[in-house]
Amino acid sequence: MKDQKFSSLLKKATESRLFLPILALAIILLFDALFIPNFFAIQVRNGDLYGRIIDIARNASTVMVLSLGMTLVIATGGIDLSVGAVMAIAASVAAIMMNPVIIGLELPPDLMKFINDPNFTYSPLWEVILVTLVVATICGVWNGLLVAYMRIQAMVATLILMIAGRGIAQLITNGVRIQIFYKPYAFIGQGWVLLPFSLYIVLFLYIITWLLTRKTAIGMFIESVGINARASFFSGINEKRIKMLVYTFCGFCAGVAGLIASSNIKTSDANNIGDTIELDAILSVVIGGTSMAGGRFSLLASLIGAIVMQAITTSMYALGVPAFALKAIKGLVVVFVILLYSEPIRVFIRKLTSRKEVRS
Amino acid sequence: MESTPDNNYLIEMTGISKAFPGVQALDNVDFNLKYGEVHALMGGNGAGKSTLIKVLTGVEKPDRGRIILFGQETVIRSPMHAQELGISTVYQEINLCPNLSVAENILIGRQPMKHGRVDWKETNSQASEILQRILDINIDVTRLLGSYSVAIQQMVAIARALEIESAKVLILDEPTSSLSKNEVDQLFSVMRKLRSEGVGIIFITHFIDQVYVISDRITVIRNGKLIGCDETATLPKMDLITKMIGRTLTALDDMSKIKAETATKIQDKKVLEAKDLGRVESVNPMDLDLHAGEVLGLAGLVGSGRSETAGLIFGLESPDSGTLQISGKNVKRFSPANSITNGIALTPEDRKAAGIIDDLTVRENIILALQAGQGWFKHLNIQKQNKIADEFIEMLEISTPTAEQLVKNLSGGNQQKVILARWLAIDPQVLILDEPTRGIDVGTKAEIQKMVLSLADQGKAVIFISSELEEVMRTSHRIAVLIEKSKVAEFSGDVDEKVLLETMAGSGT
Question: Radius of gyration over alpha carbons of chain A, in Å?
Fold first, then answer.
């Protein structure tokens, strides 16, 4: 009787959308536990928590933020390659608003001497954040217009901004890397309130996104458009508006990620901020089980996917894999994780669990 | 060339069983096919016909059972393997590539080569020749397949299946549901020719009359079980229907009575009035009106513009001439979303491509249009969704284990009912049904026809489109005839079938 209950529970668990991402994460963490000493150690400093596990979560926060927007885009059957470039644009906008001296904007002499002061900013922080997010959202609107209204294939449409975006980011700062000295800004990516502050941003954004998609009809419409756009149109769903929404939102998320990333490295580095991060974001969504063809999605699964991606990187570093070999090794591990999702292995897992059922 | 084994059987399937999650699709079914016969496989929606075919073509692996092919026990590993073994199939849903040319579709994988490259000239001329020889149709094979009507696409699919070399078994799954009378006759003559050459043909259809025209034997399955296998000549039509639906068919006899009754309730109020409504290359300007409680049938041949007319009224396209009034108000913006607001519903002809959202649940599919009409933020809560879904599952007798089943796991007829439920949920004034009974068994067909009249009885106005003239006549109070995208005539009350046919053919005037 007990056995039966267990096996039906097991079956339910394996059929859950979260099962594979959690399994993937568990395998990586198990590996870490076996081969890397003190991997799970957590220290308390000044009442805040530190440790490798916390590092993983903190470093994953940019990809997690991106994966929220990317999940919705992929669920409609699209893709957004421009998120990394939009992050760079966001970083440039934020940096220049706090420290505009670089582009030759003359500051009053009494302010000039404050420019390296960690308490000085040209524009107030709330203005910096607001304008940065608006600019990133406009980038999303641009992608949305191209995909939804101009009917350009998503990969091509977002490729445009992916390439042009880094140029735009450099134009904004006149080709210079702007250092950010303002201390409160650094809190976004480096602050700690028991846990890293960026994780609260992720949590907040996740809840907002979840409410937006699951407590309204939007989530179902996104899935419906992703599964069958024509039938959705026949059912009265405005497919263009849905696509517009998801690309806009994805741009907004890239803006948030850009704030976190630039706050982390205290500079606007148009060439390196968010470099190839769009691929990590896409892989996170894939590991989260959303089909690249569009359709059913799970935001939480994508977040776990993002953590899986970061756990791989952090584990490699902890193992002492040199930086130049990291990408190759990471690729190998990703292949292994993705294999979990292949049809033969899924069938195998299903067989394992159903055999247990028969026995009991 | 082939040596015919003594037992005379091409295929013997015995004790075939196949289960899907929640459904026993096939339960110990036997089926056999002789050399040179047309064997009709009959049964209602979800009876298991398609599954049996999928087992035979290697798409699904049976849980139990044996297949003896040409006298040898065979395991069919994949659709490719089945083709190599000489089993060719034309599926119910057309499995071709609409973005390739007709010629490519016919010869894909076997294109003639020249200097290591595809010889396009030869490809095109071979394809033309094949279509001409086998089906006696003459079309431009260099055009994209998708630019042709469903009927032509179906013919191309058949041509391709027949062309696969050494096909000894040909499976035709609902090949005639989108074909006109002439095209059906053409197909039948091809089938007779192949039969005389020793090919075994499995013919799946819902058109009972066609079965009696062409088939030699009939196997009936119901709910995944074998009901019987008889010589066509010894099985009276009524017995066949009884076998298929498991009860005697009285529903059809009541129809004329119900129709006469509902005819008296047609109101003077015009819910729909189109004046000169048209769109270049789609529908020529036409007048059309519709009263509350009335069923208007649209009759015409394939390509006569019936679906396009429906699409124009529903707002799939915007008209470029004329006006449309719904309940006396001019429609200004044409879109499906606006039609929901105006109370116009359309169940589309192409159920798979434009109807169901196959990875959503039955519940979600049912509430989709209602929710779309309410917008993004007025979210129907889950209790309300469940209530609506359960109500329609019960009302339309949709057979599904739960409302949370993915709609792709339902049979064609039940999917059709789900789409009907989706549109009934918005409580429309005007309901346009485009081929609502295509690919649906007789029992459900009669149910749907009756439902159409009972909807009219409740004061709804219905536009009913069907390729089956008999069905249009049985359900419609008034019939408009279309020829080549123009409305040419209208008939009220009882119409003579012959007159109607002549009008449709364009010889009545």
Answer: 22
